[in-house]
Amino acid sequence: MRKTGLSINMEHPKKYFLLGLLTICFLQIKNKVFSQSNNKDPFQKIKSIPPALQTIPFNDIQPSGWLKMELQKNLNGFTGHLDSLVPDLILNDDIYGTKRLSKQVKSKNLGAISAEGDWQVQFLWWNSETQCNWLDGYIRTAILLKDQQHIKKAEKIVNALLATQDKDGYLGIYDPELRYKFDNENGELWAKTTLFRALLGWYEYKKDPQVLSAIVRAVDNVLKAYPINQSRPFYTTNPNAGGLTHGLAFTDVLEQLAKITRKNQYLDYCLFLYKDFSNQVINEDAQYAKLLDPNISLMGHGVHTYEHLRSVLAAYYASGNPALKMALYSFLKKIEKVTTASGGPVSDEFIGGRTGNGLLGYEFCSLHELMIGWIDLLEKSGDNLYAEKAEHLFFNAALGNTHPTESAICYLKQDNSFQLTGGNNGDTTDKHQTRYRYSPVHKEAAVCCIPNAGRIVPYFIQNMWMKDAQGLVATLLGPSVLNTTVSNTAVSITETTEYPFENNVAFQITAKSPIRFSLKIRKPQWAIAVKSSLPYKELNGFLVYDQVWNLSTKLVIDFTSEISKKFTSNKEVYFQKGALVLCHEINASQQITKTYPIAGLHESTYQAIQPIAYQYSKGVYASMPNNSCSVWVLNPITGKQEQLMLKPMARTILRQVSFKMIP
């Protein structure tokens, strides 16, 4: 993820720094500081709220079918080889160990094209994010695929990182002279967040008590250094402190650790972090007072905004305070306004107060962070609306950003992608802009989106199944195999499907011995009818099968969909069938601009052969096989109506998703 709202791909850094400040000057609103003695204190803990669903250890779920193929493509490509593609950023910079940051370090190789100067010091933590977000995705991918060679490599990396822990528990990127002593930009909490998420994934797999002990000691070191309600971890004299505010995502670590240890002190600390974050003068959208004001649009660096959704959610559930619930739902309304047809949120670095439409770009990092936010909302609320949103984003925006056959992504992409030559749809105004193209690295911009592209598939897979008090819940649909226990009885469920590319799903439920439990299957909100081979009841958007499951039981479900005509925020028309947004695929020619030593890995641009922005005027549309449809549209060049065949935008390169309405 771009670690700051400021573009680093610059020839004159001070010039672009000022432009960045102008872009977000609207955000410089001093927050209201709420007295702890005020009965309406939004940060007062009332009673924490338990989540409606419980996650399952991620290695209990294995992908199959097309999901396994997607994951394997990543492991064979950028996820499995990023360390060798950018060794200077990952292998050669021992930023958590021998090359910890000190006052003497004034510059560092960050990979991005930039000018030299003291302005770089604020970004010195960047490689910690590159390394550990990559490691997080790498660990989970190797484990989900049961690839022993990569698992052994991951174990070696984890052991080396754990060996850097100080006697007092400190795990991080700063020498003693700097750590916890900041009044400006820093990556203290953010570097820990990215590392600890990876370590928690490794612990979930290995169940090694020494790994858990190291994580607990490291987190407790933070709690000691920044005492709850007695310190200001987000204090800064500079309101534009990207690494500092990334650190609010430390709530991810705290919540996961609370699940494992059952210690509420970590949840209380989530509330404290959000309180301090909200009370500082910083340019961030997710501060409490800003969220409550409906006149303040989302303006900031997109990936910060969308990852902070989870922190607001964590604070609300830790406190049970209705004031934070209001802030959360106000946040959700604001996110809805900036979301495009595909589920991608506006984030071509800044949101800038704009509403989502087909021509605005979204950063791959933002796709990952918002998808995880929707899944977090699903887990806590049990509302299948958020599973719908997570699926919608993953199946459309994320798969539509990922190269269909090669291991590469676009750093930035948009729904209506007419050209992929560096700038937004061929724009050459910024000669340094390269983000709108395919690469397995994107080093010239920042090696942030590729690590998150390695995380998004395993994070989707590991949340496909959850539990509730009655049994098992199929939350996100797709080909998978679940091996778990229910009431101490081993249960295995094989889910066979091409979903979302087809709408029928087969479940083979195997129990070691007959057992009664409730199996809930999420009913997609677009389904107009359901055909099931077993009787069920429908409850809160789930198909509920409550029965005794014998040694082996087969369940087949068919969901019926129809073509749906929808509208974007700027009143353009687009079409959806089932879970898939449809598009007109544009023929294009590929130009390979750089090759890498790893076979099949290269960077490329795509030029449309005949770019035409078709228009729509009450044209007839009809459903076709394979989740596609035909539609009559106007060719503005010839002035004639043409029939287009629309297909899923997933796995497309150039395409037109939305069509301008004409009388």
What is the number of independent domains? 3
Q: Report the top-level CATH class of the largest domain.
A: Mainly Alpha
**Total number of beta strands:** 27
Query: How can the largest sheet be summarized?
Result: 7 strands, antiparallel
Quote the CATH topology of the largest domain. Answer: Glycosyltransferase
Gross geometry:
globular
Q: Provide the helix percentage.
A: 25-40%
State the end-to-end distance. Answer: 41 Å
Mean residue pLDDT: 92
Radius of gyration: 24 Å
The number of helices is 17
CATH level-two architecture of the largest domain: Alpha/alpha barrel
Task: Report on this structure.
The structure is a single chain. With 663 residues, this protein is of the alpha+beta class. It is 34% helix and 20% strand. It folds into 3 domains: 13-29 and 53-463, Glycosyltransferase (Alpha/alpha barrel); 466-499 and 504-560, Maltose phosphorylase, domain 3; 566-661, no CATH class. Strands 17, 18, 19, 23, 24, 25 and 26 form a 7-stranded antiparallel beta sheet that branches. A 6-stranded mixed beta sheet has the order 1-7-8-12-15-14, with no helix packed on it. Strands 2-9-10-11-16-13 form a 6-stranded antiparallel beta sheet. Strand 24 (628-635) and strand 25 (640-648) form a beta hairpin. Helix 15 runs parallel beside helix 17.
Core attributes:
Maltose phosphorylase, domain 3, seven-stranded antiparallel beta sheet, Glycosyltransferase, six-stranded mixed beta sheet, disordered N terminus, single chain, 27 strands, alpha+beta, 3 domains, 663 residues, 17 helices
Write the layout of secondary structure elements.
Elements: H1 13-23, E1 54-55, E2 61-63, H2 65-76, H3 78-85, H4 87-90, H5 126-144, H6 148-162, H7 188-206, H8 209-225, H9 242-246, H10 250-261, H11 265-279, H12 288-292, H13 302-319, H14 322-337, E3 362-363, H15 364-381, H16 384-401, E4 409-410, E5 412-413, E6 438-439, H17 449-462, E7 465-468, E8 471-474, E9 480-486, E10 489-497, E11 504-511, E12 515-522, E13 529-532, E14 537-539, E15 542-549, E16 552-560, E17 563-567, E18 573-577, E19 580-585, E20 588-595, E21 602-608, E22 615-616, E23 621-624, E24 628-635, E25 640-648, E26 655-656, E27 660-661
Parallel strand pairs: 8-12, 22-27
Antiparallel strand pairs: 1-7, 2-9, 3-5, 4-6, 7-8, 9-10, 10-11, 11-16, 12-15, 13-16, 14-15, 17-18, 18-19, 19-25, 19-26, 20-21, 23-24, 24-25
Helix pairs in contact: 2-17, 3-5, 5-6, 5-7, 5-17, 7-8, 7-10, 10-11, 11-13, 13-14, 13-15, 15-16, 15-17
